[in-house]
Amino acid sequence: MRLPVYAKIDLTGRKATRYPINQEMFEKYIGGKIMGSRLLYDLTSPGLDPLAPEAMLIINTCPANGTGAPSSSRFNMSFKNVMTGGIATSNCGGTFGMMLKRAGYDGLIITGRAKNPCYLMMIDGEIHLKSARELWGMEAQEVQKQFPQEYGKLVIGPAGEHLVRYACAVSGERVAGRCGAGAVMGSKNLKACVAYGTKEPYIYDREGFDEYVEKWVRFLQHHPMTGASLPKYGSAGLVNKANASDALPTRNFQKGSYEHADEISGERLADTKLVKNSGCTSCPVRCERRVKVHDVEVKGPEYETVGLFGSNIENADLDIINEVNYLADELGMDTISLGGTIAFAMELKEQGIADFGVEFGRTDNLTEVIRKIAYREGICDELANGSKWLAERYGHEAAAIHAKGLELASYEPRQSVGMGLGYATSNRGGCHLNGGYLALFESVGVISADPLSTKGKPELTVMLQNTMEAVSGAGFCLFTAYSMIPSFLFRLGPSHWFTKFCGKALLAARGVLGIMWKLMPGLLPFNSMYLLPHAQTLKLITGLPMTTGKFMQIGERGYNLERMYNYREGMTAKDDALPERLTKTPQDSDNPDTVVKLKQMLPRYYQVRGWGKDGYPAKRKRKQLKLYD
């Protein structure tokens, strides 16, 4: 077994020291966002401003990172959430994490603030802090071109420099998008981190690993979701599915369907704009879209960007969406929070409350507005603070579509109430992934679990939140977890009687799911390609006695730890909330059930989680998971 090697870097004092990770900590928290949360909890004091010098930025990898396992190039950034004041974790598929590990480090713990713009360079075990005066002001791709192509790079654009609250960090063309990672780097005068090395990743059982990975790749390539739908249409293939189930945000979540949805769909993108497929390193899915913007080939938009800069602002022009997606990446801004904030500003204009120069259906000035947001120019300076801030200043809180201060992703939860519960309870705010992504079972996937029923949704939400946490903490793309859904259900389709029966059976099994977490990890003392291949892969990489049950318990431990961090920062059950538009105004005026019934679901959710009424993990749960305050 090889234990992780971290470096602790003080930008103020310009010094770096090794930070040891012991075996107990490694076995309990593995890496990525789970280890990042542990370190953030232990090494920072409550009440810090996320942009203060004392605030900490953790950039770390996972055991699978760089091994060649399917979709394992991802790395993590953990920090205090600029948007919510709670926990923040942001995942990225660029090459920086792999090169950081090859340079001899599994993670960086960064604190302090450099006196002048700087960048960090990790080369074959050595760490250097260098001046970034000439890089300051550059956009994301221009910065990265200043370093050798083979280096792994993580950079910010102008938005991070100007402390836009939802600024992101960029590695290659991949983005650590949510929660303000770019603003945290900017607050530290840290323009970039670059890494290069030749150290090979550790694999405990190389022969067994290679054999298992080969089987897993074939499995993914033959699965209808990861081997057909995602490679063919990318995540934008969800647009028409969401629209058909009234789950596509439209006009700042006023509606759930858009009459021009097909014009911005993954199918239309594939037919008219797609240059070729691509993807992250070691990914057999290849879901990335390559498109042209101003005759330059760039990464195309994901579903979230299409929804929030398409239907949600009433824009049916794919060229505009492609351009906005590219521009936001270059300037370094999260397209989810950016799109959600602009949509709210459009509604403020519609209501006669405030005029930021944006309105539904208008796109001629959209790129100009986005640039002004990035540089905090004029009245657009206010848009750089997000929807929650705008609502506190101008009112109309019911239409500010966020959870805990983070804008919601592109799934309308009034036709996917389990997804609504996930948004409300997500530790990092309005995140579909940290929220468990129950929309996959309700509105955009194949399993027909009644999207308006509250029965079974707390149990399913807990199960999927913990699973997502484990997969991410081990270093894998969450798309690889799609294969948990049996292939034959995709082939039957959501309207088939047997698929519908499976959906009903899943909800009816809520009692079993409810006690599942009390019996972990003994309930699943095995590994299976058809359940979570990640567990066996992790076992082969690390040498740990990993089973599916232990793997899922690590995910549960991570989720509870995030909750403990949020509670320490003042978040309680009252923050598990959604705007009144989603909880009190029916999407369908003829059907009062088309609201997210949080009050019905939250008590059961807390009970299944083993939390008190205040939303904090009870002593018994903390003891079971071996968590300490």
UniProtKB/TrEMBL annotation:
Keywords: 4Fe-4S, Iron, Iron-sulfur, Metal-binding. Residues 6-199 form the Aldehyde ferredoxin oxidoreductase N-terminal domain. InterPro entries: Ald_Fedxn_OxRdtase_dom2, Ald_Fedxn_OxRdtase_N, Ald_Fedxn_OxRdtase_N_sf, OxRdtase_Ald_Fedxn_C, Tungsten_al_ferr_oxy-like_C, W-dependent_AOR. Pfam families: AFOR_C, AFOR_N. The keyword Iron applies. The keyword Cell wall biogenesis/degradation does not apply. PANTHER family: ALDEHYDE FERREDOXIN OXIDOREDUCTASE, TUNGSTEN-CONTAINING ALDEHYDE FERREDOXIN OXIDOREDUCTASE. Belongs to the AOR/FOR family. This is Aldehyde ferredoxin oxidoreductase family protein.
